[in-house]
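Contributing new records

If you add data, match the layout below exactly. Sequence lines come first and carry their own label; structure lines follow with theirs. Keep one chain per record. Anything else will be rejected by the validation script.
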Amino acid sequence: MHEMAITQSVVDAIVAKLGDAAVTSVRLEIGRLSGVVPDSVRFCFDVLCTGTSLEGARLDIAEPSGRARCRACGDEFTLDDFILLCPCGSADVAVLAGRELRITSVEVGHV
């Protein structure tokens, strides 16, 4: 399960940046074509935050759709799965979006 390692990297990056500041929420963007399972990240987040400054923090995950451009017909279209086919039938497509995996915001509680 690579989601455990990915989530550990997220937690480590936030702790490294914010130290002991009490984190109340974390927002991630996980594109639908990234190969990362958001539900697995949610589970891992709860487990990995125990005993850190992120314990009890809310995790919000945005899951943007993929977008691609067909090299054959030039059409741009939305992708929600890994079947990289243009509506025209061509598989010669360039993925433009949907592989994102990033921390978009972290909220810290006030003391």
